[in-house]
Q: What sequence folds into this?
């Protein structure tokens, strides 16, 4: 009986993991690889200037990436973007 419960729990955990990955894909697939890279750096509290330096681009380019991410994901602030990422357990 305990073994069956353990097996059931493992299956449920795998299904939950698959669901979360699917939800991530649905939500964040619209982002380009570079936007995903910028998102990760934003979530790690990097400033636009720091991100630009790390990625060898201008600050204006980073601002464009951030704007495009927010438009694609339907959020209006970096706080909302971070909330969406954490809600979907992105980072």
A:
């Amino acid at each position: 009986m305990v073994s069956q419960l353990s097996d059931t729990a493992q299956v449920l955990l795998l299904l939950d993991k698959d669901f979360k990955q699917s939800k991530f894909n649905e939500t964040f697939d619209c982002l380009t690889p570079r936007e995903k890279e910028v998102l990760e750096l934003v979530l790690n509290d990097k400033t636009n200037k720091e991100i630009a330096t790390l990625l060898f681009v201008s600050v204006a380019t980073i601002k464009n990436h951030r704007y495009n991410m927010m438009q694609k994901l339907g959020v209006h602030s970096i706080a909302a973007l971070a909330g969406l990422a954490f809600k979907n357990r992105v980072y």
User: Anything to note?
Assistant: The two ends are 37 Å apart (CA to CA). Residues 2-28 form the longest helix (27 residues).
